[in-house]
Amino acid sequence: MKSYSIALIPGDGIGRDVTAAAWTVLETVAKHCGFVLTGTELPWSCRFFKETGRMMPEHGIDTLRGFDAILLGAVGWPAEVPDSVSLHGLLLPIRKAFVQYANIRPHRLLPGVKGPLRAESFDILCIRENTEGEYSGAGGRVHQGTLNEVAVETSIFTRAGVERILRFGFEQARSRRRKLASVTKSNAQKYSMVFWDEITRKLAADYPDVDVTSYHVDALAARMIMAPESLDVVVASNLFGDILTDIGAAIQGGLGYAASANINPDRSAPSMFEPVHGSAPDIAHLGIANPIATIWSGAMMLDHLGEKAAAGRVMKAVEATTARGIGTTPGKDNTEAITAAIVAALT
Ligand code: NAD
Ligand code: IPM
Ligand code: MN
């Protein structure tokens, strides 16, 4: 029997509830489909930081390297640990160390879910560059606390980094509706973004079957609201992709529905699956977090592991559940009820 080892990092806040929910669904579908998922829970979180002074142990990355995949809930408890410490101590180093350069975030409405837009038939795949750009962590502050203080945050874009994410986007477009939106701000940012536009034009020659358009990020943000059905694959830098995918979450009904896969396309290290949302301190411990984003991320994990039939079954069960109106109205069904309905819908 096939078996996969999964590192489970529930993290903080609602991360614990939504990973538990996803794990229940994943274990059930594994049984139905005849494979084994072995989960190893790692308590790395802000609580772990308070106890040990670190978000993960010194050799945490080496520990994770041995797993087939990572399922993560959310990291961050800003009341206790500054976000700049917690995220740079756990989530961001994993994406970087495991070269998970392609962050895939699908945005479409599940049946029965009412989004805020008139448009209902959009299907956007955002591909976010996940290892460099505005998140490079290069910079510093001088003359701290004085009127002369200067803070610098340098975005680093490499040809290798930009080419590989755009190629990844072109390939995704080929397997879908063959439309690619490449997103920059090259009217204002004259180095990195002009560079990105040039590479887009160069690669377009290799993909004559894909219809490519370069957009400025402000215009693309408006288009996601006004004409989301006109978009297929959207490729953006790390920060622009972060912002656009919260818009994507909003138009699909809310952060509780937005899934995310941090993929290492070369398979030289594990990939990581997590919802787009964070630890939601405002609703933590209430048991009302929507687990669908994490369950959908779990389906993306099964797909990545090669268990495509199981991934399809999870999505069918999610869709059957929302079609019945369960998990479609914020606050109506709690985490447990939504999870139980999805488990019951699994065939
Ligand atoms: P957030 O995504 O945690 O919450 C934003 C809003 O969406 C809140 O009102 C919250 O209640 C709601 N929400 C989020 N997920 C939901 C769900 N599954 N069901 C129902 N409602 C949901 O964003 P934030 O408040 O900016 O961040 C809180 C903490 O999480 C911060 O520490 C932040 O840095 C961190 N964060 C972590 C990740 C991650 O681990 N990938 C992502 C985003 C934010
Ligand atoms: C996300 C989150 C993270 C990001 C934060 C928590 C660092 O917002 O996964 O979208 O910006 O990548
Ligand atoms: Mn984000």
Automatic annotation (TrEMBL):
<dbReference type="Pfam" id="PF00180">
    <property type="entry name" value="Iso_dh"/>
</dbReference>
<dbReference type="InterPro" id="IPR024084">
    <property type="entry name" value="IsoPropMal-DH-like_dom"/>
</dbReference>
<dbReference type="InterPro" id="IPR011829">
    <property type="entry name" value="TTC_DH"/>
</dbReference>
<feature type="domain" description="Isopropylmalate dehydrogenase-like">
    <location>
        <begin position="5"/>
        <end position="342"/>
    </location>
</feature>
<keyword id="KW-0560">Oxidoreductase</keyword>
<keyword id="KW-0479">Metal-binding</keyword>
<protein>
    <submittedName>
        <fullName>Tartrate dehydrogenase</fullName>
        <ecNumber>1.1.1.93</ecNumber>
    </submittedName>
</protein>
<keyword id="KW-0520">NAD</keyword>
<dbReference type="GO" id="GO:0046872">
    <property type="term" value="F:metal ion binding"/>
</dbReference>
<dbReference type="GO" id="GO:0051287">
    <property type="term" value="F:NAD binding"/>
</dbReference>
<dbReference type="InterPro" id="IPR050501">
    <property type="entry name" value="ICDH/IPMDH"/>
</dbReference>
<dbReference type="GO" id="GO:0009027">
    <property type="term" value="F:tartrate dehydrogenase activity"/>
</dbReference>
<comment type="similarity">
    <text>Belongs to the isocitrate and isopropylmalate dehydrogenases family.</text>
</comment>
<keyword id="KW-0464">Manganese</keyword>
